[in-house]
Design a protein that fits this description.
With about 650 residues, the chain is mainly α. It has a domain of about 160 residues: Butyryl-CoA Dehydrogenase, subunit A, domain 3, CATH 1.20.140. The chain is built from 26 helices and seven strands. The strands form three sheets. Strands 4-6-5 form a three-stranded mixed beta sheet, covered by helices on one side. The protein has a two-stranded antiparallel ribbon with strand order 1-2. A two-stranded parallel ribbon has the order 3-7. Strand 1 and strand 2 form a beta hairpin. The protein is globular and about 85 Å long. The N terminus is likely disordered.
Length: about 650
């Protein structure tokens, strides 16, 4: 019922880490066809500015409904509620379009002062929206449930809000009085202070020094640069870069621990104010996800660490290392240069791999990924926001931001990213087309399922093709085919390590850190370091030799400032593995899997028409049981065994 605030920092968590691409060129050098088109939303900035003012005026009109649903001024409450909903929808859509148009300009040139100012303006409007409507839910909850549901039954215009109102009553005991809700709304900027300071400190203020690359050139060390340099075949560079980044966080560990302590105490404060027993219950109950799902993930991953332990042992053997260290576990097992692809070639590979999802789905992604569609911003440029994301633009179309190298072309990992982000876009497109406005959005718990299923289907296709090529190859071609298969197995397992096991480590750390705050224990760098160090050694196993410096990695993770969010990456990966296997089996003619793809497409169309766990059950995955997690670790175990045997074969 509340308007969702998406501040620039929270948007960074939902989309991608802010970084400066190493492939950046001036935007003027990028062909216009590879740039997205914000003008599909507003044709001019002037029209955008006119709607900003219209939104401000509309919010005053929305606030004027106060008292018209309950109390002495409520003359025609059902009709007033219909009118309120209609105006509220119009204003929410207007805000979404305003914010999207602003973001799509700002994110391609984050140094543009005008768009920096407009972005801050949108953040302020979001806060005002919440303040102007903070009275609404408390007033509605003064109406008996039976009375409100009678209005719904008697008025077709209210029936699309049935689930919204049912959910509101389910959370009624945790909704505060109108004055209390107003105070919390006004405190929004204060409660996000730790997150805001963390973002500015790590993205702007911190410096990590320099190192000399293979050519003897000086390279500035940055946190975001670790992703590129950690795969260097030069071990000296990997180690120096690692030490540069981690020592940077170590130098500020006490300040970062104080920020984290403030963040954790905020979580405890909000959970207690809203009358929850603990922070986990607050975070999950409010989005209708059972706590058992979170705990089952951690317990199942802990019970299923054997594939990860073996994978690290295989990597240590293949890399030929006596000592396998933190800076070694991202470097590829295959040293050959990787092939590069054009955008169009990458899109063709994605559409080919995703054919099991049906002709309509392929037609839709083909249109969206056509560079001329205006949906995509493909290549990195100076000042552009880093990473990749897909974003909803209600009533227009989704937009996708990428940061590929316009000169060298796309890697296989880049092409996997295309599959991932277009999965988000189809989830958005199908939900908005098939659900009324109140149900068109989908829960964070389900957000990564659609995208990761796409990515997994594609990776399974690439693996099958590589296996077939290896079986057929002879002579010198046999070795090349083997190297490609080793590369793909390693990349798939590295992805699983990052998406499933590593995110579960984060989930376990976050749970215990919040419990420490709930118990009133000291929240110090020493305590946070020990907790994290114990977890990485437990999960990654004895093959890896960690530095004490590794223990400070918790301080790098921005997701901890969005309470109990990071676990959804791990649950989504497990669900995606189950769905991808079944979808590909159905396409291969396995009769027992008939109907799987239709159920998945229906899931994409479902928005928030049911609670998130129930929607996944309808798609064929029950996240309330350990089964998806156990199936996932068995699948990963099979891949590790295949890699182990292949790398022992002459």
């Amino acid at each position: 019922m509340k308007f969702r605030v998406v501040t620039p920092f929270l948007a960074a968590l939902l989309m991608a880490a802010v970084c400066v691409s190493v492939f950046a060129v001036p935007r003027s050098q990028i062909q216009d066809v590879y740039k997205w088109k914000p003008e599909h939303i507003y044709s001019t900035v002037q029209k955008w500015e006119e709607d900003v003012q219209a939104l401000r005026t509309g919010l005053d009109a929305l606030a004027a409904f106060k008292g018209q649903f309950s109390g002495p001024s409520a003359k025609n409450p059902a009709e007033s509620l219909i009118a309120y909903n209609q105006l509220s929808e119009q204003l929410k859509i207007k805000y979404e379009l305003l914010e999207a148009y602003c973001s799509y300009h700002f994110h391609v040139d984050m140094g543009d002062a005008e768009w920096v100012g407009r972005s801050q303006q949108m953040e302020d409007l979001s806060r005002i929206f919440n303040e102007k409507t903070s009275w609404f839910e408390p007033e509605l909850l003064t109406i008996p449930r039976a009375t409100l549901m009678h209005w719904v039954d008697a008025n077709p215009a209210l029936q699309t809000y049935r689930k919204t109102y049912e959910d509101m009553f389910l959370l009624q005991e945790h909704t505060l009085s109108e004055p209390e809700e107003q105070i919390l709304a006004q405190a929004g900027n204060i409660t996000e202070t730790a997150a805001d300071v963390f973002g500015k400190m790590t993205n702007v203020d911190m410096r990590w020094g320099y190192l000399l690359d293979e050519k003897g050139d000086s390279v500035q060390i940055t946190d975001e640069g670790w992703t590129s340099w950690r795969v260097s075949q030069d071990r000296r560079i990997r180690e120096e870069y690692f030490r540069g980044v981690w020592n940077g966080y170590k130098a500020y560990e006490n300040t970062l621990a104080a920020l984290m302590a403030g963040n954790l105490r905020k979580n405890v404060f909000l959970s207690r104010v809203r009358k929850y027993d603990n922070t986990l219950q607050h975070a999950l109950h409010s989005v209708f996800v059972p706590e058992a799902v979170y705990l089952s993930l951690i317990n199942s991953a802990r019970a299923g660490v054997a594939p990860l332990h073996k994978y690290e042992q295989v990597r240590k053997r293949v890399l030929g290392l006596d000592h396998y260290r933190h800076w070694d576990y991202y470097v590829s097992l295959v040293k050959e240069d990787e092939a590069r692809y054009t955008w169009e070639q990458g899109v063709a590979m994605v559409t080919d791999a995703l054919k099991p999802l049906g002709k309509e789905y392929i037609a839709d992604i083909t249109h969206g990924l056509d560079a001329k569609s205006g949906w995509v911003d493909v290549y990195a440029n100076d000042g552009k926001r880093g990473g990749a994301y897909s974003s909803s633009t209600y009533g227009v179309h989704p937009y996708m931001l990428y940061n590929f190298d316009s000169e060298q072309g796309l890697t296989l990992e880049d092409i996997s990213t295309i599959a991932h982000e277009v999965g988000h876009s189809m989830h958005t497109l199908y939900s908005e087309k098939n659900q009324p406005y109140p149900n068109r959005d989908y829960a964070y718990f389900n957000a990564e399922v659609a995208s990761t299923t796409n990515e997994t289907i594609m990776n399974m296709k690439l693996l099958d093709d590589a296996r077939a090529a290896y079986r057929k190859a002879k002579g010198k071609d046999k070795d090349a085919a083997k190297q490609r298969l080793v590369y793909l197995l390693d990349q798939n397992l590295a992805s699983a390590r990052g998406s499933f096991y590593r995110q579960t480590i984060f989930a376990a750390w976050e749970l215990e850190a919040n419990r420490m705050a709930e118990r009133g224990e000291p929240l110090t760098a020493e305590g946070f370091n020990k907790l994290y160090g114990d977890l990485i050694r437990e999960f990654y196993g004895p093959a890896l030799e960690y530095e004490d410096l590794s223990n400070v990695e918790w301080a790098r993770i921005p997701h901890f400032y969005r309470v109990y969010y990071v676990y959804t990456y791990a649950t989504s990966y497990a669900a995606a593995v189950a769905l991808a296997k079944d979808i590909r089996d159905e396409a291969a003619g396995v009769s027992a899997k008939k109907g799987v793809t239709t159920r998945f497409i229906n899931f994409l169309k479902s928005g928030s028409s049911k609670h998130p766990v129930d929607l996944l059950k309808d798609a064929g995955v029950d996240m309330t049981t350990p089964a998806p997690f156990e199936s996932c670790t068995r699948y990963l175990g099979d891949l590790v065994n295949e890699l182990d045997q292949l790398t022992k074969t002459k």
